[in-house]
Amino acid sequence: MANRLPKSRMFLFGILWLSLLILSVKLAVAWTTRSISLGAIILHTLVTQFSMLLNVLASLKPPEYQRFQVEGHSYPETLLSLGVAIGLGSGAIYLGSIAIPQLFSLVPPPIPLQLTPLLWQCLGVIFLSQLFLLAVNIYQTKRKHQRFLGFTNICLVNDLWITVLGILCVFFLVQGNPVPDALSAILLGIVSMIDFWLVLRWQLPFLVNQTAIAPEALAQIAYSVGGVTLCTNIDSKGIIGRSVYIKMTIMIHPEVLGYESVIAERIENALKERYGIVSVTIQISTPPHS
């Protein structure tokens, strides 16, 4: 496990770096073609990269937190979320101010686009890179059992079909028809905002490092199991009903020494019965003068 985690982090940094390269190519193509829909695609790519960045930060946590996705993010990541929201909103408003007049023919139509071999190659690189990125991310999710990558796969799938739609709009621009491009830009802007909200909905409960269950309630369950005389260092992270990680330290009565594993198993079963999906780490300290 110790050798696999650095490789996992290297993989996450790698796909984030690749997505930045794809973003740079999209920026170049959007600037060259003056395509509004490609501009909207860039907004959605930013949403996907935001999800990837949260995955990178999640990979820096202890293994048990990665497995159950329970540890909260810190305040800088929360501020990053607000920054991305402001950027997306501003970008969507700007693209909408261009797309709506073009959609209703309130501005002169743009000059028909010339589809050069270099533009063909750039569009092909964008599509194949998106497909490769999705394939390796799905592979990593299934083979390495990293659950926090699952939602990024959804963003990458959306990014792929959105890219295909943007490429089709470029062909309409070549024909001198800007209406599909403007209509797609409005649609993709809405999709980008929805996907960003879904990312926040998945990640927001983890953006604040809060306690999932009151320590007193967990201590009461531990004391209800016979043989426990003291319960300390209680902590819990996550969301009840989705996944919760609980850790505690207990002291047992000298008369039940030798039954530590049985007592720990009973506590874990009681916690699962009460709170559902939980992962429990119990440290047992020996009583004094035992």
Radius of gyration, taken over Cα atoms and rounded to an integer in Å: 25 Å
Spatial strand order of the main sheet: 1-2-3
Query: Element order, helices and strands?
Result: HHHHHHHHEEHE
Q: In angstroms, what separates the terminal alpha carbons?
A: 36 Å
Query: How many helical stretches?
Result: 9
The biggest sheet amounts to:
3 strands, mixed
Instruction: Give the % helix.
Output: 55-70%
Q: Class by helix and strand content? A: mainly alpha
Mean pLDDT comes to 80
Strand content: 5-15%
> What is the strand tally?
3
Structural features, described:
The structure is a single chain. By secondary structure, the protein is mainly alpha-helical. It has nine helices and three strands, in the order H-H-H-H-H-H-H-H-E-E-H-E. Helix 1 packs antiparallel against helix 5, helix 2 runs antiparallel to helix 4 and helix 2 packs parallel to helix 7. The longest helix has 30 residues. The N terminus is likely disordered.
